[in-house]
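Continuing the batch. This is chain 6 of the set; chains 1 through 5 are on the previous pages. Same settings as before, nothing changed between runs. Recording input and output for traceability.
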Amino acid sequence: MDRDIIPLTATSTLERVRHTRQNKMIQKVLDNNTSIMIDDPLEHEMVLNMGPQHPATHGVLRVLLKVDGETVVKCIPELGYLHRGFEKLAENMNYHEFIPHTDRLDYISPMSNNVAVTMAFEKLAGVEVPERGQWVRMMVCELARISNHLLAMGCTAMDVGALTVFIWTFAEREKLYDLFEEICGARFTTSYSRIGGVANDPGAALLKKIRAWLNEFPKLLKDSEGLVMKNRIFIDRMAGVGYVPREKAISLGLTGPCLRASGVAYDLRRVKPYMQYDKVDFDVITDTDGDAWARFKVRGAEMWESVKILHQVLDKLETLKGPVMANDPKHVLPRKAEIYTRMEELINDFMLVNYGTMPPKGEVYASIESSKGELGFYVVSDGSGHPWKCKIKSPSTTNLQALQFMAEGAMISDVVAIIGSIDPVMGEADK
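Output for chain 6:
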């Protein structure tokens, strides 16, 4: 036997196999691109929680952001943190009792909420509001619209760094709250509208005060717009952000200024006139850009139109005489002064407060053009003293569902501007 040949053992065979495998792995690595790369953590997707406690979410809104660096890849708004079950509450109280609860929906525009819900109840019960009562309702609705848009203008400006506008608009809203207090006795939770009309008739002295404020307000509005309308920094933060084309705005169900900023001239005051809106002259404000900047401009221009409407309403109220409440004892609460002096009114008050108005069986839907869009109430009656079913169409809910489309592809900082341009109130969105 040749002594130069070393017999293979199990150990040596295993070593040969390991050596061969290592050589193949090394060769495979060499054949591929082996350049060293340092990963940038900002280039990888991550999930970011914005809210529910966040100053820019305009309430307890949680926005779940999937981001790649500073770019939003996906956006999911999560509602429900302020849910109070208003629709279910309506089914367990009489029609009159539910009216004050609507103050807590869009608590920026409680006057409008009261008008919308009472219109639904009146339609169900067949109650006709006197003409003067309708004009008074129009007045408070337009004052509420200005109050809302002032806050929307100020908060949106503050969110992107323009603090002065916020201070000016907030101070002006305080003057409006003083007027609301004189109109109905409350600044915030107004409960001014009643089934059949409004709680009280604003006298000549109060109408004069409203006219005086209306003459002073345009200066503040002009000055506030002057701070931002030609401010390059502000425009750059808003223009091109949260773009929604016309067709997409319609398919998403947008309403109010959010819809009109995408070029759709849809305003219930003009399309389906209610109260006396067909008797006043005003323009439906639209824009074609469909971005946050367009929505900001639309709200600003709508305040000028509300001023125009209010002057016409005041002109009418100065000459129009008559009651502001319908004379319908079966459905309309009597005045307190009459309750203490007349037995019939005392009995009617007792029956309505304890058992409620009892409209016939049926279903109705009534809506108004609130400051944020179409606010509607669908009410079903089974003939008892409380609604069998109540469903609320809130513009904040319908507009917020577009946030996902608006935010995708934007920067994280743009989400703040987008939410401000939508102008949601979570009390209304969550219901």
